C-alpha cells in the first residue's frame, strides 16, 4: 500500500482521492477485493496489484476489515 500502489489513488488515509473511492467501509468480502485488485473495476485498471497470492490475500482481508466503527 505504498505511494506507488493503493495510496497514490486512494490517499494516505485510504478515504479516496484522484477519482478513486474510499477503501473504508466498502462492504466487500475479501474475495471481491482480490478480484478488483487483479482484474480492475470502474476507474481502476486491471493489473495494478503486483504482489504474491499471499500478499493479495493479506491486502484483501485488511481492506475488507477497514471500518470507521
> What is the approximate shape?
globular
Radius of gyration: 11 Å
CATH topology: Cytochrome Bc1 Complex, Chain D, domain 2
* Percentage of residues in helical conformation: 40-55%
Strand content: under 5%
CATH homologous group name: Cytochrome c-like domain
Mean pLDDT: 91
Reported for the largest beta sheet, the result is: none
Structural class label = mainly alpha
> What is the CATH level 1 assignment?
Mainly Alpha
Oligomeric form: single chain
Count of strand segments: 0
Q: Would you list the SSEs in sequence order as H and E?
A: HHH
Number of domains: 1
Pfam family, one: Cytochrome_CBB3
InterPro entries: Cyt_c-like_dom (IPR009056), Cyt_c-like_dom_sf (IPR036909), Cytochrome_c550/c551-like (IPR051811)
Protein name: Cytochrome c
GO molecular function, one term: electron transfer activity
Amino acid at each position: 500500500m505504498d505511494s506507488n500502489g493503493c495510496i497514490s489513488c486512494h490517499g494516505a488515509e485510504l478515504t479516496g482521492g484522484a477519482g478513486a473511492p474510499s477503501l473504508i467501509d466498502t462492504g466487500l468480502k475479501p474475495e471481491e477485493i482480490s478480484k478488483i485488485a487483479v482484474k480492475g473495476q470502474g476507474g481502476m485498471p486491471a493489473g495494478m496489484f503486483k504482489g504474491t497470492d499471499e500478499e493479495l490475500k493479506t491486502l484483501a482481508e485488511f481492506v475488507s476489515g477497514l471500518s470507521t466503527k
